Description:
This protein is mainly α and 88 residues long. The protein contains three helices and no strands. Helix 1 packs across helix 3 and helix 2 runs antiparallel to helix 3. The longest helix is centred in the middle third of the chain and has 21 residues. It starts with a helix and ends in a 7-residue tail after the last helix.
Amino acid sequence: MNHALSRVYAAIEAEIEYAKSLGPTRVESQERPHTTGDYLTMLRTYLHEAEEAWTRNAGDVPALHSVRKIAAIAVRCMQDNGVYRREK
């Protein structure tokens, strides 16, 4: 695996661990796992946040913080709801 991709995966893993350290959230405190729809809502929310950050700030860094969150949310969605590989 190349170095850049390793850094990406490490950032996603760190973001997932950070989110877990925050304790139960409004959705997680319910007695059910997140649904795919729950994750899609979170993804849409953070995509909007990334767009706002990119629009209101100079450079990409503020938006890329949200992109890291988006990547972690997408990974968690697959962990919780299944991983389906692209068919050849």
